[in-house]
DNA sequence: CAACATATCT
DNA sequence: CAGATATGTT
């Protein structure tokens, strides 16, 4: 790698490595040269390296190799293939939260950039003097240990002088110890345990077990000449989503770090990383569970939930699923059980989940608010609380000046209250918010206990109302356009959802125990009353699927492959044995009482072909069980069966854009190993003769820069309008270049059903089947 | 001893 | 606080 050496060949040097990405070669060169010229005057103290790359692809491949050596990334917005923000997201996905500054002549991109997690935005053309700010930022990030791997050796002192900032590299560990007492390395604990305090061998092996920066297999090529790259990984939402997916997939009680790590398949993650995160996650869940049990009497009454999900059998698997665990999760869910099982008290969320025009949480959220904001639609079952994208994203007009984009914690109550008609609650923020606000709107991180919240980014528990970002536990009645995790009843989500989410509507992956949902992607077991457009597995009652289905799914309707023991199914694809009462439009074998429009094979009594099939099905011929061995291919083919195409399904990104789901999400996987091509970079060998004063580097002056999250790397300070799948593999691409739309829902959206339809199982199924016919 | 859980540190 | 690291346990 052509530029790698300069990173390592100095013994004590503050190195700043800036990567500039721009497809305009002229600008790129000017920019790079200027940056190089702005080297700090004392080149023995600070060394600046500019890596110039011409496009996003090259930027990513460079990062593969030098991820941990890049302190700052400056990217143009408009570039072919992938714009600067897409690049940012991709970087975040693959390498964590590196500081990215977006450049564009288009000031309209400023807000988008900051919303999407860019650390800064700068308008082209750029004055040379402004470029020093890049170094300020790079230094700041480096100092805070947010951006690069050198965190272990970094001070966190905010007032550290530049001389103290000097970085040492591992091959100078001895030097480091003598020069900076703070940095005395600890003995390796395992070696201490295992070898009576003799930490030499294991310490060495561990210390030098460098994770490869290029996203390789992580096989730990040891090289004493390389620095120990122990970066502080950032659990971005995307990464956390993957983590959650892993937990879902493995099973909550069986999810251990190693398995999670294997599932996640993220090259730069270590088992320790996962273990640490898992620990925090468990703590989080426990906290939420405790809160839930404490607050359940008035915050989240099961009344509303139960009244919508009246089937006891539906609720049951819910709780039984995890009771084996004696860990935190068992505790958590047992709490949840009581949480859901207790008779409700009619406050708040039950109204959200009910078909009533009464005020939702009348003590907190007047009906006028609901009407005015169009945020809630009380007539939707399961609270498909679709957010009006326009109103949420329209920062102009009357909301200007009322919203804070950059001040995450300010208590700006009543700033938006008038717009929301909501007294002194209802602030809005673009960045992280961490307080107990009612009805706030946030485009950044949100913390617990935020009722009626609307968020575009990481949000955690007990937020009732809605969100447009990541959601964690116990968020009833919400609508999410990002990831959502468990125990979120009555939600609508456009991305991944995990367990225990009844009455939901999802456009992404769903896992077990989610009754009465509608989804457009993969679903796993024990999901009753679900409607799905992709793969479904066993034990899903009353479903409607447009993808593969497996066992034990009574009363389903499917448009693709079905396997055995599916009672009362309707299928438009292949069916396998023992599916009584089916209706099929494709191949079917061993089916009892079915109605088929294509090839049927043996042991299909009471079945019918197209000429009279539908009627026979409606006549309930599965009760007239008469074996009628048939030759295959006997039935007439049913032409032009309308099968909803996966390609037509839509996903919504965090900002409400519709994204076409082009590929099967099951193909989605992280692949950090691809694209190993050589990195071509341009280095500029210019004399460092531009003297820039020290204080220039450390004083941020007010000008037309906008900075967001100078403490980059904090996951809650970041925003993004995309989620995991978007940024990753070739097999799952969503374009963000769609106009904002909201209503392209070419599927059976159960959330639009009348609540009474869902209150009765048969009515419910009728709705389903009628919809299919 | 690897892997896990938990405690503590930064 | 989030993530890393140390320590105890299986």
Which features characterize this protein?
773 residues, alpha/beta, Rossmann fold, ten-stranded parallel beta sheet, six-stranded mixed beta sheet, 8% strand, disordered N terminus, DNA-binding
Instruction: Could you tell me the CATH topology label of the domain at 5-168 and 677-721.
Output: Rossmann fold
CATH architecture of the domain at 5-168 and 677-721: 3-Layer(aba) Sandwich
Give the CATH level 1 class of the domain at 5-168 and 677-721.
Answer: Alpha Beta
* Class computed from helices, strands and strand pairing: alpha/beta
Strand content: 5-15%
**What's the N-to-C terminus distance?**
61 Å
CATH superfamily of the domain at 5-168 and 677-721: Response regulator
Quick one: overall form?
elongated
Q: Rg, please?
A: 28 Å
The tally of strands reads 21
Largest sheet: 10 strands, parallel
Ranges with pLDDT <50 over ≥5 residues? 1-11, 146-229, 295-439, 605-773
Number of helices: 23
What is the mean predicted local confidence, pLDDT? 48
**Strand order across the largest sheet:** 9-10-11-12-13-14-15-16-17-18
InterPro entries: ARR-like, CheY-like_superfamily, Homeodomain-like_sf, Myb_dom, Myb_dom_plants, SANT/Myb, Sig_transdc_resp-reg_receiver
Region (Disordered): 181-227, 355-375, 479-532
Domain HTH myb-type: 234-286
Pfam families: Myb_DNA-binding, Response_reg
